[in-house]
Every structure is written in C-alpha cells, then in structure tokens.
Amino acid sequence: RPSAAAGAAAAAGLWSEVNRCGQNGDFARALKSVNKILQINKDDVTALQCKVVCLIQNGNFKEALGVINTHTKVLTSDVIAFEKAYCEYRLNRIESALKTIQSASQQTDKLKELYGQVLYRLERYDDCLAAYRDLIRNSQDEYEEERKTNLSAVVAAQSTWEKVVPEDLGLREATYELCYNSACALIGQGKLNEAMKKLQKAEELCRQSLSEDSDVTEEDIEAELAIIHGQMAYIMQLQGRTEDALQLYNQIIKLKPTDVGLLAVIANNIITINKDQNVFDSKKKVKLTNAEGVEHKLSKKQLQAIEFNKALLAMYTNQADQCRKLSASLQSQSPEHLLPVLIQAAQLCREKQHAKAVGLLQDFADQHPANAAEIKLTMAQLKIAQGSVTKACMILRSIEELQHKPGMVSALVTMYSHEEDIDSAIEVFTQAIQWYQQHQASQTRGPKSPVHLSLIREAANFKLKHGRKKEAISDLEELWKQNPKDVHTLAQLISAYSLVDPEKAKVLSKHLPSSDTMSLKVDVDALENSHGATYVRKKAAKLTGDNQQKEQGQGEVKKKKKKKKGKLPKNYDPKVTPDPERWLPMRERSYYRGRKKGKKKDQVGKGTQGSTTTGSELDASRTASSPPTSPRPGSGAAVSAASNVIPPRHQKPAGAPATKKKQQQKKKKGAKGGW
User: Fold this and answer.
1) Distance (Å, rounded) from C-alpha 318 to C-alpha 280?
2) What are φ and ψ of residue 276, in 5° steps?
3) How far is CA 375 from CA 323, 337, 380, 553, in A?
4) Reduced to 3 states, what is the DSSP secondary structure of residue 636?
5) Does residue 379 contact residue 358 with C-beta atoms inside 8 Å?
6) Does 162 have pLDDT greater than 80?
7) How far is the C-alpha of 144 from the C-alpha of 134, rounded, in Å?
8) What is the C-alpha end-to-end distance of the chain, expressed in Å?
9) What sections of the sequence does the record tag as coiled-coil (predicted)?
10) How many alpha carbons fall within 13 Å on the CB side of residue 43?
11) Which of 84, 382, 557, 647 is deepest in the core (most CB within 10 A)?
12) How far apart are CA 670 and CA 57, in angstroms?
C-alpha cells in the first residue's frame, strides 16, 4: 500500500537521522527523531530503547525510568535491565537497583560493573571486593585502570570504616587516584606519616597529568587537588597541628568546590576544631553539612559523625531543645550507640540536673550491658563532681571486667585513701590479687606475671605506709619467695616481723648480706665536693709553729665577726659633739618650732605702695628668733658662733661661700627659705 510504503520510507529516514545524531553526541535531536518513529509505531522495541538511552544521556533519569515502567510488556527485564538499574542507581534508589540487577537472567559485563558500584554504595565491601576482582580477572579492555582504581577504593573503605588490615593488591601506583586511595588505606591503619608522603606523591602526579592538557587551567587543577588537600589537612588535625589544618581547610572552602560531600566533611572537621569556641563560625559552617545531596555522597559513619557534632553544637550554643531533639533522633537510629545518651546526660548536667543525668545513664547501662562499662565510668565521674566519692567507688567496683586492671585499682585506692577508708582500699588490692591468682592458676603454674607482682608490692607498701605491718607480712613473704635476692623486700619483712614475732625477725636477719658485701666503693670527699652536694665539709688548715702551739693551748676559739665601720656624713666635724636627738624626726625634736607659713616672695610687696624691704629683713638667719637648728645654706660662720650644737647631718662644708646664690633665691618662684 502506498501509505505503508511512505511510512516505511519516512521511518528509514528518521533512523538515519538518529544514527547520525548518536554518532555526533547530539542526543536531544536524536530524541526528537525517535519520538517521530514512535508516532508511527508506538511499540517499536528498538525505538523505545533508543528513547531511554537518549533520556539517560541527557540526564533525564526519572523520565527514562517512567518510559521503562510504562512499557513493561515490551521492555522486559532481559531487554532493558541495565538501563533500568542504572536509572535507579542515579536516582539514589540503591536497593531497587540491586534487585533489578539480581533479577536479570543474564549477567553482562555492564551489569557486573554496575553491581560493583551498587555494593560499594551499600557499604558491602567484602562482596564489592570480590566483584571487582572477578571483573579484573575476566575482562580485558581500556577500562582496566578504572577497575583497579575502584578496587583500591574498596580496600581503603575497609581500612577506614571497618578497621580491616588491607592486603597488598600489588597495584602499581601510576595514577594520582591510586596514590590517593593508598593514602586513605594508610590513614585507616594510623600510619599518618606514610599517608602524608603518599598524598604528596598523588598531588605531584595530579599536577603532571592535568598540566599536559592545554585546556585545563590552574583553577581546574586546584579544584581537582581539593580532595587531596582536604585529606592532608585531616592528617594534620589528627597529628595535633590544628592551626595548619584549619588554614588548609579554609583555603579549600574559598575555592568553592562543586563536591558537596567534600565541603560537608571539611565543614564538620572545622567544627570539631572550634569545639565550644568560635561558635558563630561553627554555625555558619554547619550550613554546608545540610546541602542537598550530601546524604548520597558520604558513608553512614560520616553522616552519623556530622549529626553528633550538630547535637554538640546545639548544646554549646545553649539550644537545649534542639540538642535533645537531635540526640533523641540519633538514639532511635542507633539504640546501642553511646554518644547520644552521653550528649543527653551532658545537656542535663549543664542544666544542673545531675541526679537525672545519672539516672539516664543507669537506665542505658541496664538496657545495654555490653556498653555498661563506659557508661558507669561517666556515672562515677559525675558522682565525683558532686563530691560523692564513696558512691563513685561503688559504681567503679561494679564494673567487673575492670576490677583487676592496675589503673582501676590505683584510682579506687586513691579515692578510698582520700576518704580515709583504708580497709576498703586494702580490700580492693586483695580482690585484684585474687583475680590474678585464679586467672593464672587456670592457665599456667609458672612464675607470676609482672602485673601480679606489681600489685602485691603496691599492696604491701600501702599496708606498711598505713601501719598495717601484720597484714603486709603475707604479701612480703610472697614477694621474697619469688625473688630471694631482693634485699629491700627482706628488710621490709624483718621490720614487719619485729612487731609480731621478734624471733622470726632474728632468723630472717641472718639472710641479710654482711656489711662488707653491702659497702659501696664511694669516694666521700669527691662526693662532698661534687656540684650537687648540699653540704661541703671545710678542710682543716695545716697549723705550724707558733700557731699550732697557740691552738693547742687555747683550744678551739670561735672567730669573731668584724663589724663594718659605719659611714660618716660628708660634713662631719669631729670637734663638734653630735646632736643627741639626731635620730628623731624633725617634728619630734625639742627645739623644733614649726614651719613658717608663707614664702619669702609673699613678703615682697607688702605694706604701702612703692615701699621696699631691706636686705636684713629678708635674711632669716640674722633674726634673734631664728632657731639655731636650721642654718641658712651657706652660712658656715654662723655654725661655729651658734650657742646650740648643730647636728652633723645638717651642716655644710666650712669652706662654702657665705652669700651663695643669694640673688637667685630671691628671683625663684616658690623657692623655700632656710627653713
């Protein structure tokens, strides 16, 4: 029929257009041609497949999946399994993608590749590792390097999140991606210095690789290096170099990378550096962790850590309701995790509700016995903060798996000693020693372990220190039995027996080494003359002749200290008797008449206008009422003529001129007179 022939010719032309556009990568024009073909035949399987591919190439995954689900009768799972699974994977429907792949009748190489990606997103690293190993072993094409990179990424994830020691895959680290993944694996093992060297190598390889492309700018290179620099900053933070880490983190943020996952991790790490300081900056950074799509870029543990830090930030910023809401949500997601309940308890403590916090922790410890030890340690700390040391000790002693640990024994003994409960402290020692005895008896009958012997010695020393020598005897005997050559222990044992059984002490004292064997070859003189000696004996000077006879006759005579000759005033006159009242303050002396009010300058100009004052009136030393104790400066002649004796410390040298600077004293404002 002409209409059918015309339709077939039109379809052929459209298929040619689709083929040409597909080769050129113009999938938008190809999609238009495919839609025209489907108008001619809506159930054309090839046209429907092409439409799905064009939509995927254009990034329209939801629309492509809609086409597949609409035409399920035509597009069966055998025909379109990969495209359907890929759309579900890109739409972050990971579980659905896994079911689609597993339901396919034939596992093609494309499906296996996608299967590995799906397993990685589901964090099933063991299965993912096996899938990539199978792919590398059974395929030979140009994508081998990418598969090896993915394989190293799986190993790095195992090392980081599951703490699995990675096996050596024998991969040649020729690309910066492989170097980066190797560095991540080393970080998971705690080998930070080696990891830093790997990252530096990865940075160098990245620059070399990208600089070969003329179209790549320096900004593009820095954007590609952002994730490597972020990992470097993380290592610095783990090493305690927080200032360097913070500087590098902020440099990455300024680049504004498009990877929302990288930005979220960096923002979270900055918040952990800030802690309870610089909360304004932390509140700005926390917005980066809320970006769209972050939940699909990070692992579950990374997302959980971010949520924990959000709750802590809410607590530090006094947002109590928000803190409780976030911690309750975290607890519902991970009921056995410690951090949510610890955050809730910390918030209650900030609100001064210590009893409620302890009750909350106790309920959690009862519900989750596996995590009870860490919770009870926190409860004990709260009790100590409240001053209830005895209750804290009771809580600590209820942790059975830690009772015998040296650290726990030391803490309990210290706390009981603080409370002066010596009996309880000794009981702690006894229980710990018994545990080691039972544990050692069940495994071996050889010599006691160093920890066991250390506990026995500490128990003995503690008992001796607190006057419990009788109780210390059994411990000391056990120690001496283990090491008969230990003289210190033997001496302690003899001291303890001396109060209980003196005869036994005498018998044991025979085991002590003789004084000759115990003497140490020490040069006493050299020791006393050493730099660190606190007492040095003075060597006696050799006495000869008359001195020796004098010493023998008089015996030891203590040398008297020579008194230093006192200093005399510069104007001291030996002919003049010193003033007996010279040691008293001027105001307390018998001849002190007080200080004249006013100054000489105040006297000038008084009286009738134009009148002048004679020089004799201004000379206070000439007046009869002037006290002889305060001579005018420079009046050396008046000193010898005075009826009363002038104190030496107030005298001037005899050779001083009588009228020294007399004119200057009149001109000076505020200058005081001879008083």
Assistant:
1) 13
2) -90, 5
3) 20, 11, 9, 84
4) helix
5) yes
6) yes
7) 12
8) 146
9) 94-149
10) 4
11) 84
12) 102
Closest CA to 343 of 400, 288, 304: 304
Contact 642, 658 (CB under 8 A): no
- Residue 482 identity (one-letter amino acid): Q
What is the SS3 assignment for 119? Answer: helix
**Which CATH architecture describes the domain 413-512?**
Alpha Horseshoe (1.25)
Q: Give the separation between CA 95 and CA 107, rounded to whole angstroms.
A: 18
Q: How far apart are CA 187 and CA 231, in angstroms?
A: 9
- Closest Cα to residue 186, out of 146, 238, 263? 238
Cβ-based burial of 619 (10 A; exposed 0-12, middle 13-18, buried ≥19): middle
Q: Helices (H), strands (E): how many in the chain?
A: 34, 0
Does an H or E element contain 481, and which?
helix 469-482
Residue 532: per-residue pLDDT = 62
Written as six digits, the tokens of 406 are 């040296």
Listed ranges 73-87, 223-237, 377-391; the one with the highest mean pLDDT: 223-237
Does the 1-106 domain belong in CATH 3.40.50.12370?
no
Measured CA to CA, the distance from residue 490 to residue 158 in angstroms comes to: 56
HSE at residue 123, side-chain half, CA atoms within 13 A, is 13
Counted residue by residue, the chain has a size of 675
Same fold, 1-106 and 318-402: yes
Domain boundaries, the chain: 1-106, 271-316, 318-402, 413-512
Task: Name the amino acid, one letter, at 423.
Answer: D
Q: What's 318-402's CATH class?
A: mainly alpha
Q: What is the pTM of this model?
A: 0.67
Highest mean pLDDT among 524-528, 543-547, 659-663: 524-528
Which amino acid is located at 369 in the chain? Answer: P
In sequence order, the 6+-apart residues with CB closer than 8 A to the CB of 122 are 94, 95, 98
Say which residues have a Cβ less than 8 Å from residue 340's Cβ, sequence separation at least 6.
308, 311, 327, 328, 330, 331, 334
Per-residue b or e along 443-471, where b marks 16 or more CB atoms closer than 10 Å to that residue's CB: eeeeebeeebbebbbbbbebbbebebbeb
Q: Is 118 exposed, middle or buried (0-12, 13-18, 19+ CB in 10 A)?
A: buried
Cβ neighbours around 287 below 10 Å, total: 9
Dist. CA 77–CA 120, nearest whole Å: 23
**Which pair of structure tokens corresponds to residue 87?**
């759309």
